[in-house]
Amino acid sequence: MDILMLALRVVHIGAGIFWGGAALMMNYFWGPTVRATGLAGQQFAGHLMLKTKFVNVMTAMATLTILSGAGLFWVASNGLNSAWLKSGMGIGFALGGLFGLVGYISGAIFGRLNLNLTRLGSQIKGKPTPGQLAEIQSLQKRVALSARVSIPCIILSILLMAVARYLFLLNNQVNFTPI
Predict the structure, then answer these.
(1) At what angle do helices 54-76 and 2-25 cross, to 10 degrees?
(2) Per-residue pLDDT at 171
């Protein structure tokens, strides 16, 4: 069981660092830079989204994070043992997992919308038509909304996962060794 926990933790933490770090970089640095640099930014975004494996790698890392986290939760809780689930640590990991899952779903929506926006932008030669402009604006609003959900959820998930093992101190009724 120790080797399984170690493997799950390595995958969960490694993939989570990549996923969370890249999502934060995209939201706080790449996105604003793309918007501020006009055509050059659009070319960068087009290359990143359409010509590299970035979308596939982000999807894989996010999926590995979620699946390994679910495995860790199952093993650590001894098959969803209700006493563990009611402990401070169990509640912390459960809330972190819930925020992570919401971040995963909203991040998948963000990625799909961003990919659609990039594909549309790559098809436009010159000035966009009024219909294309309306579609771009609609996609941009939906991308911004999904980011407003995804990013805080990822941050909350990271913070809860970081401190959950110490939350057992808040609940002396159940004494478990932190994982």
Answers:
(1) 140
(2) 57
